[in-house]
Write a structure and sequence with these properties.
This protein is of the alpha/beta class. It contains ten helices and 14 strands. The mean pLDDT is 95.
């Protein structure tokens, strides 16, 4: 069986490649941008260079590979950047998804495809709505959230209009080793590792009150495989732990792993124009369909993330 991963050299894509090769023995192809980083590549993945905003390049790869499965993970995924670069975010996330869908429709309509949505699609969630299920109203609070709603709805439309085998996963926050340093869990872990190496013992923080539902990336990629092998096509599924932590609590866990005394300092530059107060998901639909359960406790995920940054810095 052949799998194609878009965004294969990224945080989630690289972990998914590990799982599909080591856990499921698939032949894995990866789509990556020209000049993308080589840090998370592996020799037994067959890489193809293309920008997902270039339909011709995307279509050529899909036509040549004829994959049994496509995992569409490539995206501009950093929420704060979407306010600074909304046009680029929408182009990458919406037109990029459209290009993948069109390539599948024209070149390999029988392929099973997973499109990675996001909990940011829910956006403004009222306290009485949590935990959030798949029927909750979508009120995105950022250009990134809007772009993911559009990609989500396009995927459902292509299933209804053309019969494509598409399943949409709305993954809530996920973390673990290799997480990009701009994301809050990784940013805090990196700062702690740098402080342990002699940097001034101050951690810069933004909004510590927001609450998020975190899943280990290794549990997340296992869920993506179950999504294409167990879930109903054309449906949307939340993937989450069903438990939320405040940013402050998450930072406290990380600080519990170091003996260095560290001061916390607010940084106005880390505040977003509008933030989502609570993202707590309801994984019932996905768990009933696939029997999936998270394996990694959040504390272990944070410990592994800090270990990753200690080795890296």
């Amino acid at each position: 069986m052949i799998a194609l991963i878009t965004g294969a050299t990224g945080f989630v894509g690289s972990h998914l490649a590990d799982y599909l090769i080591d856990g499921e023995n698939l032949e894995v192809h990866g789509m990556k941008r020209p000049r993308s980083r080589e840090e998370f590549t592996r020799s037994d993945v067959i890489y193809h260079e293309a920008d997902i905003t270039d339909y011709t390049g995307v279509s050529k790869i899909v036509r040549e590979i004829q994959p049994d499965y496509i995992f569409h993970l490539a995206a501009q995924s950093y929420v704060p950047l979407s306010w600074e670069a909304p046009q680029a975010t929408l182009t990458t996330n919406v037109i990029g998804t459209l290009n993948i869908l069109e390539a599948v429709r024209r070149e390999c309509p029988g392929t099973i495809m997973q499109v990675a949505g996001s909990s940011e699609e829910y956006g403004l969630v009222y306290p009485y709505e949590a935990p959030i299920d798949e029927e909750n109203q979508l009120r995105p609070q950022s250009p990134y959230g809007v772009s993911k709603v559009a990609a989500d709805l396009l995927s459902q439309q292509y299933h209804r209009s053309y019969g494509l085998n598409v399943v949409v996963t709305r993954g809530f926050n996920h973390s673990g080793p290799r997480r990009g340093e701009v994301f809050v869990t990784s940013n805090f872990a990196k700062q702690i590792a740098e402080i342990e190496k002699g940097r001034k013992p101050i951690i810069k923080v933004g909004n510590l009150e927001a609450r998020r539902d975190w899943t280990d990336v290794r549990d997340m990629v296992r869920a993506y495989w179950l999504a294409v092998t167990k879930c109903k096509m054309g449906e949307v599924y939340n993937i989450c732990s069903g438990k939320d932590w405040s940013i402050k609590e998450m930072l406290g866990i990380l600080l519990g792993f170091t003996e260095v005394r560290i001061r916390i300092e607010n940084d106005p530059k880390r505040m977003r124009p509008s933030d989502v107060p609570v993202l707590l998901g309801d994984p019932t639909k996905f768990e009933k369909t696939t029997k999936w359960k998270p394996i990694y406790p959040f504390v272990s995920t944070m410990q592994d993330l800090l270990k990753y940054w200690r080795e890296k810095v």
